[in-house]
Amino acid sequence: MTRTEKALSICLNLAFAVSPAVAAEQHYYLEYATFRALTALVPEAPEPRLINLPDGGYELWSQGQMRLPAGDNLVAGDFNQDGHPDAALIFRSHSRRYLLIASQIQGRWVRQALIELKEQSGVTLNGSILILGPPETFVAWDGHRYRLATKAPAPAPAGPFLYPSDSLRESLNRNFAPSK
Fold first, then answer.
1. How far apart are alpha carbons 90 and 121 in whole angstroms?
2. Which secondary-structure segment (H or E) carries 163?
3. How many whole angstroms separate alpha carbon 76 and alpha carbon 102?
4. Which residue has the higher pLDDT, 79 or 22?
5. Who's near 145: CB < 8 A, 6+ residues apart?
6. Measured distance CA(73)–CA(91) in Å, rounded
7. Residue 42 DSSP SS3
8. For residue 81, what is the DSSP state?
9. What number is the average pLDDT over the span 10-23?
10. How many separate domains does the chain show?
11. What is the pLDDT of residues 123-151, one digit of tens each?
12. What's the sign of the alpha-carbon dihedral 110, 112, 116, 117?
């Protein structure tokens, strides 16, 4: 085997070894229309903006000239295990920061919770647990409402909606298109 053939063989082996891991991790984009639909649920927070997006970037994004990874701004899942797709959006309005949790019910977003934040600037999802940070703060669902907690809540009990159903997964894919 020549040096070139060996190098090609090594590259192909690496590509096959890495591609499943890369394919398993999907990156989602936050569409401006989704941001507007969600923040419309919060009329008491005028001029909403993403916390970590400068005004110039916001203008480009709002005009469709820039794609914005959801990153720490938005996560989607079924947080309260009711079978409806949920979204958690962290944003600012003037000098205040908020976490908005909304559910999509019959094709419309419905506000579930609005929590004013002190300093947290990102949101992630670990299984069924929403985590804000820094500093690390957990969002707990007590069966009736969401609240902030300094300790991780117990994981949701196993049930039919522990992992998104096919219809929920399809709805999430429609609303939060994965990157390519």
1. 7
2. none
3. 10
4. 79
5. 113
6. 7
7. coil
8. S
9. 33
10. 1
11. 888 877 888 988 888 888 877 888 888 88
12. negative
Nearest Cα to Cα of residue 98 among 119, 77, 78: 119
Q: Name residues whose C-beta falls within 8 Å of residue 47's C-beta, 6 or more positions apart in sequence.
A: 93, 94
Q: Is the pLDDT of residue 84 over 70?
A: yes
Cα distance between residue 138 and residue 123, in whole Å: 10
**Mean of the per-residue pLDDT values of the chain:** 76
Which candidate, 103, 112, 123, 113, places its Cα nearest to that of 168? 103
Cα separations in angstroms, 8 against 12, 20, 120: 6, 19, 47
Three-state secondary structure readout of 23-38 = HHCCCEECCHHHHHHH
Domain that holds residue 162: 24-175
Enter the tokens of residue 36. 């507007």
Residue 16 confidence (pLDDT) above 60: no
Average pLDDT for 8-18: 32
Burial classification of residue 40, based on how many CB atoms lie within 10 Å of its CB (0-12 exposed, 13-18 middle, 19 or more buried): exposed
User: What's the rounded Cα separation, in Å, for the pair 109 and 123?
Assistant: 19
DSSP-derived secondary structure letter, 141? E
